[in-house]
Amino acid sequence: MVHGPLPGVARAYGRGMARTPFSPAFWRSPLRGPRLTSLLGVVLLGGITVLFLTGLLSYAAYNPDLSPVNDKTPDKGILGFYLFSWPTDPHWLYRLNQGVHVTLGITLIPVLLAKLWSVVPKLFTLPPARSLAHALERVSLLLLVGGALFEFVTGVLNVQLDYVFPGSFYPLHFYGAWVFFAAFVAHAALKTPAALRNLRQLREEKDELVSPEPAEATVSRRGALGLVGGGSLLLLATTAGQNFDGPLRRTALLAPHGGAEPGTGPGAFQINKTAAYAGIDAAETGDQVWRLVVVGRTGTVRLGRADLLRLPLHSAALPIACVEGWSTSDQWWRGVRLRDLAALVGYDDPPDVLVESLQRRGAFRRAALRANQVADPRSLLALFVNGEELTPDHGHPARVIVPAAPGVLNTKWVAHMTFGDL
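User: That's the sequence. What structure does it adopt?
Assistant: Structure tokens below.
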């Protein structure tokens, strides 16, 4: 009687297992190893930390705890512990923050993909957990890989395609970022000491990432790193220009708001929503028809464009900066100070304000601004830009412009302003 498997069956089983991802022999690249993975991990450690912090700052810039109309994540609970009143100085603050956030995120894509490629054998390691520490590492790795892919994919879709991912970008990206970063911190705490040791060693040690049966090398590790770095530099060079005007914007070949400026003349700078997209009816915005309704402590005031032109006009040089990462240089705006409009309805000390637009489609038809934003002398209800009347696409007959605020809070086609407690 034969006890145990037949020798031929055992050999066939072994060969079959070698052809599956669960066998170390399946992963034959000679490039994988602890030094390569550690180097990529250290780069991501710094880059993802900056991404997370700039993402939190971007969210704070919307002042989500000011008013429900600004809050796209109303169930955030303790995740909003850090929120603060967004400042107006320096006036380029949001432009810098979001430019770094989006440009760095796109630049890190080759590094992230290379890192995921380098550790993919670990996802198939058997047994699933050899100890509690190993189980924690595996869980953090799964959350890290899934969270990284989710955050980078949703971010790129928002930037490149005006967001086509199912659901709302704001809550998905916000909550996903917290889950991802929690896994990232746990994984970094577990692996950073080993990663630093790997980088200090002159020779590659045996590791579960090193193939027991490596294939013949077709490229060196230095060449692979050069390929990853070159890919990142290419993405940087073809994206970063969307944060500048003039010739540099033409270099942003992979950015939706790169390339040539839209048209010529004083209004030839980037926009996100056209008047047609927002559903603006030209019959509503004519000088004889349009009225701005201002509500406050002493009642309601209705102002036509001619009435606004009789008020003191002021100028400010401010950029437009979008959550999608693109921005303009400073444009020269002229109009009525928001704090002067607050004074018309009884506020010597400017309060918060709720601004409502004529737009019928698109997010942020209503947006709230904090008192410090209203009080800033550069915060305007703009009637002119770069010496000419606003074009329909730039918000004619009147739009808000506030230093350091995200573009969507600079409401266009303004129809109604309510000063006071929101």
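The chain has two domains: 16-237, 275-419.
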